[in-house]
Amino acid sequence: MALLTDAAKAFIGYRSEPFAACETVERGAVRRYAQAIMDPDPAYAEAMAPYGAPIAPPIFPSFMFRTPFGAPDFLTDNAEDPDFDGIVMGVGNGLPPLPLDGLALLNGGAEIEFLAYARHGETVLQSSRYADIYERETKSGPMIFVIIETEFTTEAGQVLLRARKTIIRR
Amino acid sequence: MSERIDFEDVAIGDQLAPLERGRFTTAHLMRWSAAMENWHKIHYDQPFAIGHDKLPGLLINGSLKQNFIAQLLKDWAGRTGWVWKINFQFRAMNVVGEKLTVWATVTGKREAAEFGLIDLDVGIRNDKGVESTPGKAVVALPYRGRATVPYPFVPPAM
Fold it and tell me: A75-82, long-range: CB within 8 Å, 24+ apart, which pairs?
């Protein structure tokens, strides 16, 4: 049975306008993230050469796009739904959700290109694109592969990283 | 964290000192879910993970595992080198209770004008020896006796 509909395929090529994360790179957020990934690098707490200021872990910018003040409470809104998987993407990546209701979501991997670290206090922006959406038959049955390309930059225009992510829906 | 590792210090076939992580508990996964503010139930709600999503147990987040690969390479490159590219696939699941070994092996060396490039295979093996996160990476290292890799990084024209 084919999972992928024309309605979902129509999103290929859609690109979001660049938009800023709801907060700047906060010291406390960096600390909690560094502790959770178990990385004791002192550059996350104090300025070290050659970065000029305390930095955030390499992939941190891609996790900055969180649920802002005033946003609806998805956990309460979905509390009665036995199929709600708990995924709260914050403001997500600026891309509209694909019409693939009821399909589980798995992280299939990524390619990341790093150019600089985000420094404490900086504003980070992102712009994303549905680069491809296709279906493949696998050992575990049909799966949809969603390829999302995202670029993260500072307000000053410095590219921090570029990510090409594969999301699997099945 | 390496003090300074130069292009000339590295040989094809070299294995980086691995990063050992775990044994993973549900608390590790909750700490990561809280740090990134995402509440995907497959990482802490066992009835949902097994009963609804038909998974073998509570999954160690792929989003967490990718950070381990970045950390291994970053600490090896030191502050005078730069991790330029990493790609990886989430090929197999890791579940609560496992220990993970994050590894990298040098597979190639290329010379750019201002610095050298090291190609690596990377991955994450659990304590049963199963590879879950195979991938590749490119790390820029300075030439011996020459300037450190520029920061912010400027990709080489190749």
Answer: A75/B39, A82/B52
A82 contact residues in B (CB cutoff 8 A): 52
Tell me how far apart the alpha carbons of residues B102 and B89 are, in angstroms, rounded to a whole number: 14
Tokens of B140: 């820029």
* B79 Cβ contact list (under 8 Å, min separation 6): A43, A48, A49, A50, B1, B148
Q: What is the CA radius of gyration of chain B?
A: 18
- Tell me the per-residue pLDDT of A120-159, one tens digit each, with 9 for 90 and over: 999 999 999 999 999 999 888 899 999 999 999 999 999 9
pLDDT at A82: 92
Residue B57 lies in a domain: yes
Per-residue pLDDT, A106: 80
ipTM, two decimals, is: 0.96
From A32, A101, A108, select the one nearest A63 (Cα to Cα).
A32
Give the whole-angstrom CA distance, residue B127 versus residue A97.
37
Looking at the structure, give the CATH architecture of the domain made up of residues A6-23+57-81+92-169: Roll (3.10)
Residue A141, strand partner residues: A138
**Set of chain A residues whose Cβ sits within 8 Å of the Cβ of B35:** 29, 32-33, 35-37, 63
Q: Which of B39, B66, B84 sits opposite A113 (nearest CB)?
A: B84
Least CB-CB distance to B88: which of A35, A82, A109? A109
* pLDDT reported for residue A90: 66
Count how many domains chain B has. Answer: 1
CB < 8 Å to B115, chain A: none
Question: What's the pLDDT at A93?
Answer: 80
Beta-carbon separation of B64 and A37 below 8 A: yes
Return the CATH number at B17: 3.10.129.10
What's residue A5's pLDDT? 87
